[in-house]
Structure formats: structure tokens, C-alpha cells
Amino acid sequence: MDKSSSITDKYLMALDAGTGSIRAVIFDSMGTQVSMGQREWTHCEEEGVPNSMSFDCDANWELTCECIREALTNGKIDPKDILAVSSTSMREGIVLYDKQGVELFAVANVDARAHKEVKYLKENFPEIEEKFYKLSGQTFALGALPRILWLKNNKPEVYEKVAKIGMISDWILYKLSGVFSSDPSNGGTSGIFSLQTRYWVSSMAKEIGIKDDIFPSSFEVGESIGKVTNSTSGLHSETLVVQGGGDVQLGSAGLGVVELGDVAVLGGSFWQQIVNIPSTTQPPKDMGIRVNPHVIPMQSQAEGITFFSGLVMRWFRDAFCDMEKLEAQQKNIDVYELMEEKASKVPVGSNGIIPIFSDSMKYGKWYHAAPSFLNLSIDPNICNRASMFRSLQENAAIVSDINLKKIEAFSGIKTKTIVFAGGASKGALWCQILADVTGCNVKIPKVTEATALGAAMAAGVGAGIYEDLQSAAKELVVWEKEYTPNMQNHEKYKQIKDTWQKAYNKQLELVDDEITTSMWKAPGV
């Protein structure tokens, strides 16, 4: 890194468009967070369109500008001193534009309006999903093609005006610079991208009768695409605009997961299990795991997803733990810390409680059983809030291990060390359970804003501060703790995992028989 005063006096800005909020985070050239502006936003269901999740471009751009100005004000930073800006966002969200660059249609990540279109594609184009998956690593569930087809079927007058497509992180850069761009890591989640060439595959759109001339140029993350031209943003016209990417992949870079074979478990509202693999690796034939382009050239990421692990824990806290909330308040500690303290006294296996919440990933045909706890006891010393809490922690770790084993089966990469990040990694018990279940060492990075740091790294690469994302990660990422597995517990968890899988399959049969209601189903299933 060039540590001359002309560089170290400058700053990097990351614009992080998550599902629940937009943030502008400013870092210095050493990767230290200086200030932040944040606004919550909501993505509403479109009237008369079930399961939709629209993205309001006008309102959300105003919120983005507010964040930029707030971050500058909080940090007492002159806009001239922002050397470069980049963006990251929730993946799968798309924005469609007309010839003049006006936004016509935009949806957030888990918009599931295209249920009928997914079903239509599967029924009328036999094996096309499998064919596209081999190229892109994506299924139709959250892809762009069914959504565009929905627009064609339901709003043809809007569809006819469509001239360009981009992801939400690209939309932010377009609003700043006026340049249409895309990148492999986020563009790849559209499902219209090649893992190997790291570029759009327009023939996919043509094959199902969708416009095939709407795809922008694709840049690698960290490439400069222009300068700020939008004065309403609050940024200076000399600030470089640098290609960003998907939140999970840039978050991985912010955690130092940048080399082939590196593994991370990201423990947030959803959990992701990430393994870096060569971009030439063929996705699995059963379509069980998602594969995305990484932000590192020549690399992909095999990704398992665990639905709602963090949200389920929050539900359990709010539904059952009022007494613990009061006790934690009296002790001036976080309620999760108190619950972990109590759960640490519960033996491995949570006294036989089997939690039925998220299943392991079945990307090709994915649905969940009804949320439930099985094998409860009426002995309050065995079955109580502490044992149920621990069972939820074990559930998330078990599903993570299953997904990592699925990735190992097709990639040949065996997990030895896991980088664990996100809110769940703050809990010492959860970290140890993850180590014990997987039999792997678990490393905890000393970073609170991994996704934003990854985007700031990208900005720094574009500005010439860092040679590339890999060298930036090695320089900026530091470690806080490491947990080693208790191998006696690991052997116990092997049996517990086998029992859990058998129980979950039985619970899926109840959904199939329409006796219980699935926690979540992919569109078209």
C-alpha cells in the first residue's frame, strides 16, 4: 500500500444496500471505519401481486443520498477527500431501464411473484433449468428470467420499453456515474451468467422468448468505471466510481476468504456456507447447491443456504424469553449472552429435542417442513427454554455441516478451518457448537462491517491503493479468536445429525400430505 500523505489523507466510501437498510460507510486507507450513515428501507408487496417485493427506486435513491451526506457530516469529511466509492447489495434484486435510463421495474432479492412463470418454464421447456444451471450455477427460484417473463405476461406495455438490466449494486453506481455496468458476483445471481466466462449468456433469454439485447458490459470487481456525475449525491465530481458486487462475495473478501479452498459460515438472519472453488468446477448434477462467481477472478463460490436461523432465534427470544429479557436487563448484558450461559449447562444433543426449522439446501426443489420442536419432554428440568435454545443453535450448525459436506462431494474440497462471522459469531457457545459439529477449527475475524469493508476494498483497488482484493484482504483482515473442536462431542453430533435428517424427512411427508404447512417454498415448487 502507498502510505504517502496524499493517499492516507483520503477516504473510501462503501454503499451497502442490504435487504433492510442502506448504509454509507467511510473507511480510511488503512481499512479503519471512520463514519457511517444509515437509513432503514422497506420493500412492499405490489398491490394485487402476491409474493412480490418491489424496490422503490425514487424513494430509495433519496435515502441513499441522505446516508452519503450523513456519513460525510458525521466524519467531518470534505467530499473532495473521498477518493473512490463502490457499492454492494443484496443479490438477485434487479432493475430494468428504458432507453433514456429511467427505471421501469425493480424488485428486491426474495421477490417471488413469478411462481406461474417458473412452473411454465419447467413444464414447457423440459430440462432447460438443468441446462442453464450447468452454465450459471443458479436455478429459476430467484432468477431474473422468470421475473422478466412475468413482466412480459402481466405488463407488456412496460416490458416493451425495457432496454437495459442491472442488479441493485449496479443501480447505485449508475445513479452516481451515469454508466451502465455489471459484475460477475452479483450479475451471476441473475441466472443469466456463465461461471466460466464470467459474462452474460444472452442466448438464455432468447431461448425462452425474452429480449436478449439488454445486458450491460461486465467489469471485474475493483475496476474503475468512471467518476461521480450526479451532484445530488453529495459526492465530489472527482471521486472515482468503482465496480462493486454481491454482498456475500464482497463480505467474504472483507473476512479474508479470498484463496481457493477458503471456507466461511456467515451467521445472520439467514446462514450461508461458502467455499471458494475454481471457476472451472462443474456445479453438482443434482442442483443441490448454489454456485456463484466470486469477486476474485477465476474463482467461484459454492454456497449452501440455511433459511431463517437468525430470525428463528429472534422469534424464540421474543415469544418465550420475557423472563430472560428482564434478567439480562438487570445484569446489564445482552439477552442472548444470558441464554447462552444457561444453554451451556445443557448437554450435547439438548436432551433429545429435535428442532424442525431450516432444512439443508436442495436448490433444485426446495421447500421446508412446518416449524416445530419434536421429542419434547414434560420434565421441566430436561425440556425448558435453555435446552430449546441450545437445540436451535445445534440445528443451525448441523445444517451448515450437511451443506459443507454436499459441497465437498462435488468440489473435492474438504473443510478444515471455518471463518465464522455475523451476529451468531458473537456467541461463544454457538462458535464452539459449530466447531464440535463440523470437527473444524473456527476462526472469528475482528471486523464488524465485513460487507462494507469488502466494498471499500474494491474502491481502494480501483483507486490504486491496493493491488487487488486478495492483497487488500491479507493486509486489512485481523483475527480475534479461534475455537478448536471437542472431538468427543463431534462423534456424538454425527449420530445426532443422522437422527435429525431422518426426522426432518418424516416432517416433509406431512407437508406433502397437506397436513402441515411448509415454512417456505421456492416459486414453482
Outline the structure in words.
The chain is built from 18 helices and 18 strands. α11 packs antiparallel against α14. The chain is α+β, with helices and mostly antiparallel strands and 525 residues long.
Main attributes?
6-stranded mixed beta sheet, alpha+beta, globular, 18 helices, 19% strand, 2 domains, 525 residues, 18 strands, disordered N terminus, 38% helix, Nucleotidyltransferase, domain 5, 7-stranded mixed beta sheet
Provide the fold topology.
Layout: H1 5-8, E1 11-17, E2 21-28, E3 33-40, H2 57-75, E4 82-89, E5 94-97, E6 103-107, H3 115-124, H4 128-136, H5 144-154, H6 156-159, E7 164-167, H7 168-177, H8 184-187, H9 202-207, E8 224-227, E9 240-246, H10 247-254, E10 263-267, E11 271-278, E12 290-293, E13 299-306, H11 309-320, H12 322-331, H13 335-343, E14 354-356, E15 372-374, H14 385-411, E16 417-421, H15 428-438, E17 441-445, H16 450-462, H17 469-476, E18 479-483, H18 487-512
Parallel strand pairs: 1-4, 4-9, 10-16, 16-17
Antiparallel strand pairs: 1-2, 2-3, 5-6, 5-7, 8-9, 10-11, 11-13, 12-13, 14-15, 17-18
Helix pairs in contact: 3-5, 10-16, 11-14, 12-13, 13-14, 14-15, 15-18
